[in-house]
Design brief:
heterodimer; A: alpha/beta; five-stranded parallel sheet; 12 helices; B: Transcription Regulator spoIIAA; five-stranded mixed sheet; 4 helices; about 45% helix
């Protein structure tokens, strides 16, 4: 790894440099005197053999690349005294290979190596993903400002002019290594954060999968149902369902918990399961107002982390073609009778579920003519802020539904596409749920 | 979203809310709004004439306020809701639990009572 010293090279010009290096090393004056009286190689050997005094534990690994052996060894010696691990190399290509294979915290690199100049070296280091994070401090024997500037522009972190000022050398090494270790720490934390996010992502996907498993399958008889569900985040506060209560009564419901995210979804799923299993104490699930009253008793917001939900609940009686419904702070369902250009808005005023104790709820009924279309949706379907700042209205949303071709099955993708178009972005900012029933 | 204190009287506090009461808007004023109620057991008159949107999180702020005030036998009075906001309040039967007024004098009379 380390080359032999160059033969026939005079050490005399190095004396000033050695003075500073020994001062930096902490060697005592008498030792320094004896070194000065010796010839170059003996100087070098003495320094290497001198036992360390206050050896610090290593706290950084440095690659030192310098083609001048004496300069390299003395510098390495003194850096080691500071507690760093040092590996040395005199050849640029080998140094790059070494840099790739080791976990170095700093490269001290001579600007003008015989086989690789500083600019070439930096270009290779900064374009190599394995190396680009390693700080590089250039060692410059000459005041080659033009090259230095180009190297710093190419990604060098600092430079040290030769002969070295010991205090400056220590300060720059320490600063560069501290920056590198800080960056390593940041990268480590970032990796942990990414791993954490991935784990949360997996868990949220699992939760979303569970929520989706609770949603009903589309029906094809005795009427056709369909739905779309697009949560604004990984999980939303919307949920809905429909099922037969008995052979004559079909329940249909949609609930929207205030807020978004996991907290809203947990309450949403809990309430959905209660409705799916008709598990509210004292409520006849064929009577919508009773269901809402019992739900309001069961889910007071003070016991639900200050969350409440809007709910629309309807029961279609097949034998009488009657829909009885009740709502709690929920947008109306829209009923389009065949040939009608104006939908019937199906809603009753009612306090949001859990909002206020003992709130009264009432039911209303309407006839469902054959061929009617019913749409049940959350407020996210039409509370859209348009480009001009205006908020899209329920009536405008109704016109989108009215435009769906009457002679073809209801295509909810057309509705979703129109909503996305109005928002001007593919992302949905609020949960979006819509159910259609073609009677 | 902005919350302005118009009058801090011995018997009532008169404030105005300005902006959209959506998730982001509510986050900006909720703490200050709730602290107003917690700080004093007085009627709270809220001018919402410049509230252009009322989402579920906005309703939650008013519900929380109305409940807190009701424990002290005090009232939340909402003044001048815009038609779209009024529709939302009506759909949620807010008229049953808070006072909704369209006239300042009538609202002040109730606030001072």
């Amino acid at each position: 790894m380390d080359a032999e010293p160059q033969r026939g090279r005079s050490l005399a010009p190095k004396r000033a440099y050695l003075d500073k290096a020994f001062a930096f090393s902490g060697a005592d004056v008498s030792s320094t005197q004896r070194i000065r009286s010796a010839v170059g190689r003996q100087v070098f050997e003495y320094v290497l053999e001198k036992p360390h005094g206050n050896k610090l534990p290593p706290h950084g690994k440095i690659l030192l690349v310098d083609h001048d052996r004496l300069s390299r060894e003395i510098l390495a010696r003194n850096i080691r005294r500071e507690g760093y691990l040092v590996e040395i190399e005199d050849n640029g290509a080998k140094a790059l290979s070494l840099l790739s294979s080791g976990n170095f915290d700093l490269a001290l690199w001579e600007l003008q190596l015989p086989d690789l100049n500083g600019l070439e070296m930096l270009t290779r280091i900064r374009t190599d993903p394995r190396l680009q994070h390693i700080p590089v401090v250039l060692l410059s024997e000459r005041q080659d400002w033009d090259m230095l500037i180009r190297c710093i522009e190419a990604g060098a972190d600092d430079y040290l002019p030769k002969p070295f000022n010991p205090a400056l050398l220590k300060a720059r090494i320490r600063a560069s290594i501290e920056r590198k270790l800080l960056r390593d720490r940041e990268q480590s934390l970032l990796s942990q954060l990414k791993a954490h996010q991935e784990r949360i992502g997996v868990e949220l996907a699992d939760a979303t999968s569970y929520l989706l498993s609770l949603l009903p399958r589309p029906l094809t008889e005795p009427f056709v149902t369909d739905w779309r569900f697009i949560p604004s985040g990984e999980l939303g506060g919307d949920s809905f369902g429909y099922h037969w209560l008995d052979r004559d009564h079909f329940a249909l419901y949609l609930l929207d918990v205030c807020g978004h995210g996991v907290g809203a979804a947990l309450l949403s799923v809990t309430a959905l399961n209660v409705l799916r299993s008709s598990a509210l104490k004292g409520a006849d699930f064929r009577q919508p107002s009773e269901v809402l009253g019992a739900a309001n008793d069961a889910f007071p917001m003070e016991q639900q982390n200050n969350r409440y939900f809007a709910l629309w609940y309807g029961v279609y009686q097949r034998s009488t073609r009657t829909l009885t419904y009740s709502s709690a702070g929920h947008p109306p369902a829209l009923l389009f009778a065949p040939g009608s250009i104006c939908p019937q808005k199906l809603a009753t005023p009612g306090m949001v579920i859990g909002g206020w104790p003992n709130s009264p709820y009432r039911s209303q009924s309407c006839e469902i003519p054959a061929g009617s279309r019913l749409f049940l949706f959350c407020d996210g379907a039409y509370e859209i802020t348009l480009a001009d700042g205006r908020v899209f209205s329920l009536d405008e949303f109704a016109s989108i539904l009215l435009d769906l071709p009457a002679e073809r099955p209801i295509d909810l993708d057309v509705v979703i596409g129109r909503i996305r178009q109005l928002r001007g972005a593919p992302e949905i900012e609020d949960d979006l749920s819509i159910i259609s029933v073609q009677f | 979203m902005e919350l302005k204190v118009i009058k801090d009287d011995a018997t009532y506090i008169h404030v105005a809310l300005i902006g959209k009461m959506d998730v982001a808007g509510v986050q900006e004023i909720e703490g200050k709004f709730i602290s107003l109620i917690a700080a004093s057991k007085r009627n709270l008159l809220v001018d919402i004439s410049e509230v252009s949107f009322m989402g579920s999180m906005g309703l939650r702020v008013f519900l929380t306020a109305a409940k807190s005030l009701s424990w002290s036998k005090k009232s939340l009075i909402l003044l001048h809701p815009q038609p779209m906001v009024d529709e939302v309040l009506e759909a949620s039967s807010f008229h049953d639990v808070v006072v909704i007024e369209h006239n300042l004098e009538a609202a002040l009379l109730k606030a001072k009572s």
